[in-house]
Amino acid sequence: MPEKKVIENLNVLNQKKYQALNQRSLELSAIIDTKGNYTFISSNAEKIIGYKEDELIGKNIFNYIHPEDIHKIKVEFEKIATNNAVDCTPHRFKTKGNKWIWLNCAISNHVNDDTINGYIINSTDVTNLIETQYQLKKNNERFDLLNKITDDIIYEVDLTTRIVDFSDNFYNYFSLEYDNKNFSSDDWEKLVHPADYKEAKQSWDEFILKNNNNKWIGEYRAIKQDGTYLHIEDTVYVIRNDKGIPQKIIGVLKNNNSKINSRIKNKIENQLATFFKEEINLKKILKSSLKFLIEYGDFLTAEIWIINNDKNKIHLIQSLTKDKKTDSVYKKTNTINSFTKGEGLPGTVWQKQEAEIWNSEEIKEKFKRTELANSLAIKSILGIPLTYNNIFIGTLILSTNEDLKNNELRTKPFLSLGNFLGAEIKRKEQEEMLYLMFQSSSDILAIVNTKGYFTKVNPAFCKLLNYSEKELMANPYTFFLHPDDLNATNTEYKETITGERNSNNFTNRYRAKNGDYKWISWSSSDIFGEEGQVFAYGRNITDIKELQQLFHETAKLAKVGSWEYTLKNNNEIFLSNIAKKIFEFELDTNIKYKDFLNAFSDKNKEDVSMIFKRLIMFGESFDKEFNIKTTNNKNRWIRCIGQSEYDKKGKCIKISGSIQDINTQKQNELELAKKNNYLSALTDIITELLQSNNWYESLNNVFKIAGNTINVDRVYYFEIHDHPETNSKSCSQRIEWTQDHIEPEIENPMWQNIPTESFSEFFTPLQKGEPFTAIVSELPNGTLKESLTIQNIKSVLILPITINDSLNGFIGFDDCYQERKWKNSEISFLHNVTSNLAAKIHRMRVQSDLENTLKERNNILESIGDAFFTLDRNWTVTYWNKESEKITDVKREELIGKNFWEFFPHLEGSIYEISYRKSVKTNKSVYFQDYFEYLDIWLDVSAYPSKEGLSVYYKDITATKKIEEELRASNERFEKSTLATNDAIWDWNLEENSIYRGNGFKKLFGYAVPNKIHDIDILNLIKSRVHPDEAEDVVDSLKKAIKNPKKSNWEKEYRYIKANGKYAFVINRGIIIRNEHGIATRIVGALQDITERKEHEESLKILNKKLEIQTKDLINSNQELEQFAYIASHDLQEPLRMVTSFLTQLENKYQSKLDDKGRQYIHFAVDGANRMRNIILDILEYSKVGKNTNEEKEIININTIVDEVCKINQKVIEETKAKIIFNDLPEIHSYRSPLTQIFHNLIGNAIKYQRPNNTPIINISHEKLDRKWQFKIEDNGIGIAEEYLDKIFVIFQRLHSKEEFSGTGMGLAIVKKLIENLGGKIWIESEVGKGSTFYFTLPRK
Asked: Among 72, 333, 417, 1295, who pairs with 371 as Cys (CB 3.0-4.6 Å)?
């Protein structure tokens, strides 16, 4: 309404001639004063906002503005004071019906007009406009999200303008020339392949003319921006008017290239797999494979290049050409058959480990075999990395006369062959290698059938027995057995050939052709093959058996026996004769396992039983000392060692070990331990006396420590004083400590006020400061003996308490169970106790005169946390804070001290009363949310009960509980997009608990689902469509994504049940929309059917099944070979340890009887055994390099590694005064254990190999290269001659005698193998007399 008109109306009003403003006006006019109070409102107010004029006059306008809009309106309101007019931003206004409407206002300043004296406000209701804009924004947002979550191209065509609107994906595929101009339907002809355009257009024209057809699907090729063509599936949905005339088109373009590529790749792999199944050598298989690739892919040449074992070169191992003419040119011009890493196309693929496609320009620039390329006019070359378990093994090279740089369909199926072809080549290589290993193994290898015949034997078996392969296979194994081993061997054979268990180190004797018998230790594999055969491997242990007799004789000297317990025969335990002698068992009797355990002392018996159980159950080896009681009741100390043995299935079958008589040395150790125990106890007693302020109270602890230390039954303190009646010297018991099983005497009045004259026998020595000891049975009859006998005392020790040369009392120690002869060490210990106690008594008596008792106590007041208001048990309000005043508009002065329910009667029977009373009654807190209609706000309420009453916390959550309005159906653009796409689109509104599902659910899964559903459990709905095995995981994954405020995307693959009951493999992708607090409000997603891809993956699994089986066989074989190494190491080390041990004991025992020659021979034998043991350990370590896969990679600071190595070698560093210089070494991502071993070996060698009296100086530095770290370890040692530089990394290569420098010659071989396993290499520069410099590299990533 114009301002002039308002002013005229006011004049009429003042003159009482005012008539109502036009009731039909859509604009609301009002006047407010400078404080915001209404002074005038137009008569159409009731129609627009529901209020009559008299209901608003005098009221403040801000009471009706939405709380969220008040601030911005007040800011704009303040501007009107200095401006003539202000246009306000739209805001929400509360109508009389408690609804919010949106108003758009213009304010003009008339404060200086005496007639108006305020601000005129003209307002328009724009609620419908605001809501429409909001809904439009939501729908556009949903459409944009749909474009983001699908790889398809969605487009829309307005048939009136013929303008095409594409999603962003279009420009990722096709020409960018359309970015700056509209794409019209006439441009389609330029986009479609000429060969496909005519057929596609004809199909489209026939479809569009049929009025009842709304959906069209076409397939054709479309040109991409790089000039190549993309296979397209075009799905179109047409929107027609009432007359059937097309108005709009919604379409989806889907990339079909991957489907076609997949078919080609499957066909190639199937054919190659057929070649590799043939029982011919690898070279012939590769030739057949290359021939197929040339014919199928129309290539000129094909080559296979494989890297050598040293991994420093890649060699051409097979090649083929298209025809004889090409082959003739190829043989003349191909002059290079090997490359280094990074050289030529094979070396480049090796270095990058990714496929390469070189066109003519790149061939001219990079291809090393120029004459070959020119002669054959090669325009494109494909280089494909061949890998096995993600490790590069070689390169496949394919060449052609065509330019294939951008031809995806000609190249992609071949570029993805690397993993498959690499695995097949590696498998065939390993198959051939296993055959060679069987033939060349130095161990005995054989295969035995179910009839007891060998079906395969290796040359080592034939050589050992001097029989031919035919002779060994022509007779059953029993033909060659020693008669004494026949029964045991047959039993072993039956249990292994039936699969009951595997054989493990079973020994028997086989007859050689010359009549000699050979001891063989056998182990066996699981049953394999349809005929149920078993693989057996053995080793010749004839020499070991002969040594065992020597060891047996040596064991007698060391009093070492053996034991063995087989779980199959669990009633008895085998003990050697020496072990039986230690336990004093009869030598010709079998020992029961139960009797063996009972021989251990009661104190050890339970521990022994538990240790043996853990040895059997968990393989926990032990080496412990125990106390036993022999069959002749002699106490004896033994050392017992135990270990376990397992079969192939990991089941414990036997435990065994040794037993040694250590009684003499143990007695010496116990005596020393007792003395140490006395010192420890004395320390505890002194500490107790020093820390205690009351010596009477501390005496009980002192007596307990002393009593338990010397194992007495009673300790007591008697104090000397004057008799209360006669004043004669008397004594009384003040404190007593006893063992639990001894009757206390502290309350017995008999031991109070005893005249000292009555016990002159022991008071006389006490007066002299001497102890009194006695065995009660040996005392003369009298008062003393009678008094001690009454208390059941067998032996007594009395020590005086002397202070300032005066006897103040005494401490007694009673043994009530044995007539004990007190040892000097015990008396000395107890004398120290009484001396310290006397000193403590003296100090406390002096200190007691100076102490004051402190009786102050502090009261801690409990604080009650702030609450919005509190109620006592009578529901009286005791606290009401300012926030409560703001929310309820009730001042605290009005409410404090009043009954809550009387003040708010409208709350009786409401959720507030029910919840508050429940909280008080159950003494548990309550929480709820409620719309408080009296204040028109939502409240978040928490109530906490206490002894005093109830504390209640209110929170206004109106902002998060806005009135939820039903969104109208998705706009036509979004709906038609979902109809056109092959994906099943869904939109879940978490705030409304509603979900929209597109037509894709019908197309993909056969469900005619409703477009939108409300008020159901959405998660259960999703769960009901998922395969039961995956349902929980899918729902949990979705829940976690919704709860995580940092998650904006969700993706999951699973099986989805179709309407026909079958399952489809799907991938479900969703974009999560969150509010400003990070709470998920909505998720828009799409399901794609990936069943075809999954079926392809399954076919690959089937194709690789045989490869996996053969790989498993190879792994088993490798494990068996590793077990050979471990068994050989263990069995060789054990005799060496025994020889070393017993030769050392022989030298010690017969030292005086040996001459220098004898001692020299023993030294040579021990030294040789030790060196042999070190060699065995190093060989075992060398064989294990690279096989520990349990350790995980981590970020490692090399400075820390070098520090740890220096600490390990601290002693030798100090002895040689070595200087190790390093600083700022890098951090690398690698394995800790091998790095520590590398630096330990290299630094240790640098310190060891030095000139006499030369101070080792070792510098450690590094250099950062392109893709690796290069480390340098430089020393000033003896150096190495140039002719030996290539030999030092070879196993067992020693350049010095053992007298000059110790070692086995394997350290640097292990270092080299460790570094190469980590992906690096090592080399050396050295000059004799000046020192050596070791260089090695490690990958940076």
From this structure: 333
In the chain, the N- to C-terminal Cα span, in Å, equals 76
Strand partners of residue 737? 715
pLDDT of 17 reads: 34
Q: Say how far apart CA 486 and CA 452 lie, in whole Å.
A: 13
Average pLDDT over residues 310-332: 91
Do the Cβ atoms of 63 and 69 come closer than 8 Å? no
Average pLDDT, the chain: 81
Rank 337-346, 410-419, 741-750, 1137-1146 by mean pLDDT and report only the highest: 337-346
Tell me the C-alpha distance between 575 and 590, whole Å.
8
Residues 165, 142 contacting (CB under 8 angstroms):
no
**What's the token pair of residue 196?**
């496909």
d(CA 1315, CA 1336): 8
Question: Do β-strands 1257-1264 and 1219-1222 pair in parallel, antiparallel, or remain unpaired?
Answer: parallel
Helix, strand, or coil (residue 429): helix
Residues ≥6 apart with Cβ < 8 Å to 761: 772, 779, 782, 784
Between these two residues, 545 and 328, which has the higher pLDDT value? 328
Residue pair 170/155 in contact (Cβ under 8 Å)? The answer is yes
Whether the CB-CB separation of 366 and 358 falls below 8 Å is answered with yes
Torsion of CA 1165, 1168, 1174, 1179, to 10 degrees: -120
Residues in the chain: 1341
**Type of residue found at 33:** D
If we measure between CA atoms, which residue out of 508, 514, 462 comes closest to residue 483? Answer: 508
What are 1043-1049's contacts with CB under 8 Å, separation 24+? Answer: 1043/1080, 1045/1074, 1045/1077, 1045/1078, 1045/1079, 1046/1078, 1047/1072, 1048/1072, 1048/1074
The Cα 617–Cα 614 span in angstroms is: 5
pLDDT of 491: 93
pTM above 0.85, yes or no: no
Whether the pLDDT of residue 397 is over 80: the answer is: yes
Residue with tokens 């915001």: 36
Tokens 């709906």 correspond to what residue?
975
Q: Is residue 719 scored above 80 in pLDDT?
A: yes
- In the sheet that holds 246-255, the strands lie side by side as 183-184, 163-166, 153-158, 246-255, 229-240, 215-223
Q: 1134-1177 pLDDT, tens per residue? A: 555 555 666 666 667 666 666 766 666 666 566 555 555 555 55
Rounded alpha-carbon distances, angstroms, from residue 654 to 489, 523, 563, 570, 1195: 18, 15, 11, 10, 43
What is the model's pLDDT at position 1245?
A: 87
- Indicate if the alpha-carbon torsion angle 62, 67, 70, 71 is positive or negative: positive
In 3D, which of 91, 116, 130, 129 has the Cα closest to residue 29? Answer: 116
pLDDT at position 153 over 90: no
User: Which tens digit of pLDDT belongs to each residue from 779-817?
Assistant: 998 888 888 888 889 999 998 988 888 888 999 999 999
Distances from the Cα of 208 to the Cα of 46, 185, 252, 485, 1004, angstroms? 56, 14, 17, 93, 25
Q: Do 405 and 380 form a contact (C-beta atoms < 8 A)?
A: yes
User: Exposed e or buried b for every residue in 110-146, given b needs 16+ CB within 10 A?
Assistant: beeeeebebbbbbbebbeeebeeeeeeebbeebbebb
Q: Give, in order, the Cα–Cα distances in Å from 1263 to each of 830, 1012, 1224, 1239.
A: 69, 65, 11, 16
- Cα-flanking dihedrals φ and ψ of residue 1080, to 5°? -70, 130
C-alpha span between 673 and 519 (Å, rounded) = 49
* Percentage of residues of the chain with pLDDT beyond 90: 21
Kindly give the residue spans of alpha helices, DSSP state H, lying in 194-323: 194-208, 257-276, 282-297
Decide: residue 1015, CB within 10 A, 0-12 exposed, 13-18 middle, 19+ buried.
exposed
**What is the reported pLDDT for 1300?**
65
Which two three-digit tokens encode residue 811? Answer: 């401490």
- Is the pLDDT at 688 greater than 60? The verdict is yes
Most confident among 82-91, 825-834, 1026-1035 (mean pLDDT):
1026-1035
